[in-house]
Every structure is written in structure tokens, then in C-alpha cells.
Amino acid sequence: MMAEKTSKLYAIVHSKCPYCRRGDVFTGTMYGFNIQRTKEFCGHCGKRIEIEPGYFYAAMYVSYGMNVAEMIAVSILVYLFVGGLSDDNFLYYLVSIFGACFLLYPFNYRYSIMLLLHVLSPNIKYKPHYDTEVLDRS
Fold first, then answer.
1. Which of 18, 100, 106, 137 is the Cys-Cys partner for 74 at CB 3.0 to 4.6 Å?
2. For residue range 10-56, what is the model confidence (pLDDT) as tens digits?
3. What's the CA gap between 54 and 78, in Å, rounded?
4. Contact 11, 96 (CB under 8 A)
5. pTM, full prediction
6. Cβ burial, residue 116 (10 Å; 0-12/13-18/19+)
């Protein structure tokens, strides 16, 4: 009996390996005292997550795009609550935008890497035979 495949969306949201969609890509939690770090190898299938040295530098560009979208969204929200940008409410815009960037940094770090691995990397392919509950390593 064939096990049901794990969806790509589930793997991205739950930060799973792009090869097997079972192993965790990060150690630690997104927000917490134990700092999140990217694992070198998947704990389930054993594949190397960072396929070459410096590969995750490309995630900076993804993170930049996410950050710009978040800044625009926060600017629109501040505009709706305090009105147009003027000398009187400039500080509201400044604190809100940079505060949101600071609070969303762990989110951007994690999901920029996940989008790079799952969506933007043509050389990384999902291997359904790794997507099993228990992988026999004998």
C-alpha cells in the first residue's frame, strides 16, 4: 500500500526538506530562546540541504522582496489609521515600518530559505520514495 504524498504547501509552511518533505530544515523555533539555524543535512533522508557553499545568499533577495511587500502593507495600514504622511505623523510611519521589519525578521529568514529551496531552485527535486514514515537505512 502506497503512503500518501506530502504536499509542497505543507512542506513549505512546516519547514520540511524539499527532497523528502519529512525532515526539518531548521533547528530551533522561529520565535523563541533557541535560535533557529539551518541544518546541514536532512535528518530523514540524509540529503544535503545547502547544496553548495553560499547557496543561501540568494535567499537575501527573496527576503528583500518579502520585506518590501511588508513595508508597503504596513505603510498602507498606518495611512488608514493616521492619515497621509506629514511632519506631524512621520514618527508613526517610521516606528511602525521599522518595528514590523524587526518583528518579522525571523519569519523572513525562515520563509525566504523555504521559498528558495522549494520554488526557486530548479535543481532540487522532490523524491517521492523518500516521503515515507520510516526510512530504512540498511
1. 100
2. 999 999 999 998 899 999 888 888 888 889 999 888 889 888 888 88
3. 37
4. no
5. 0.83
6. buried
